[in-house]
Amino acid sequence: MSSPTDRPPARQRRRTRATRARILDAALRELGRNPDSSLGDIAEAAGVARRTLYTHFAGRAALVRGLTEDAMRAIGHAMADVGALDAGPGSGRGAGEGSGPGTASAPDAASGPDAASGPDAASGPGTASASGSVSAPGSASGPGSASASGSVSAPASDYDPASALARFVLTLWPVGDAYRTLIGLAPQDLGPDHLSELLAPARETVAGILAEGQRRGVFHAVVPPGPLSAAVEAHLLALLGTVNAGIWADDGSGAATSALIAAGVDSATATATVRGLHAPGPLPAARRHH
């Protein structure tokens, strides 16, 4: 018969999870403001003692891993949402399987490197997991690539790359802070190779959308999809920086419209496409590039 002390009471476990989430929230704010913030600064911002922070995270590297896992979990869920939205009626695909190119699969639960960094390590801000496991984004596939079942699927004839790109930006915009902080921290704390590995699914998704848009003449083909995807990403991160600095306010609509224009969609069509995603009704077809 197990002793009552073998497992902490439910109330204590909830308190532990809440404290860990508060620390990660504070870390996201403080490190987003100043990447050189100390653990003492983060503990103060979280309203906890430094020893409490060390109970959950052994050091800066463990804390950054925790932030990384939360950021990738949030991005993975957003990408899964994009896939579910792209699986429209009659597409023959289930929720989470996008009809467009490069759509990410739903995140798989995986054991993260910081899963055991603290007692009852649990999910961070905005997540519902209580196990501390990490849902990493599924791998993205390009146009006409093989699905998980081995079958090869091509984008539907009515697939609209402009809407797909706008929807991707609108869905990921709310987790943009996490994405931006991750890019700022990971190279120095986790290494650039690990960062590229973590962000590959999101980047491949955008590159796949851009490639299909170029193939259909919706986006310009002045540069290949990969470099164009990197340019769009840098553009969006710069816009997010102005929002964080209080220079600009946007719910994602302006950013999505700007991304479409950067990809080669004319201003009027880009604006109408983004507006159409906020209201039911047919969307205008983007003018083709010749």
UniProtKB/TrEMBL annotation:
Region Disordered, annotated ranges: 88-154
This protein's UniProt keywords: DNA-binding
A Pfam entry, by short name: TetR_N
Compositionally biased spans, kind Low complexity: 102-154
Bias-annotated ranges (Gly residues): 89-101
DNA bind region: 38-57
InterPro entries registered for this protein in UniProt: Homeodomain-like_sf, HTH-type_TetR-like_transc_reg, HTH_TetR
Residue ranges of domain HTH tetR-type in the record: 17-75
PANTHER family in the cross-refs: HTH-TYPE TRANSCRIPTIONAL REGULATOR RUTR, POSSIBLE TRANSCRIPTIONAL REGULATORY PROTEIN (PROBABLY TETR-FAMILY)
Protein name from the UniProt record: HTH tetR-type domain-containing protein
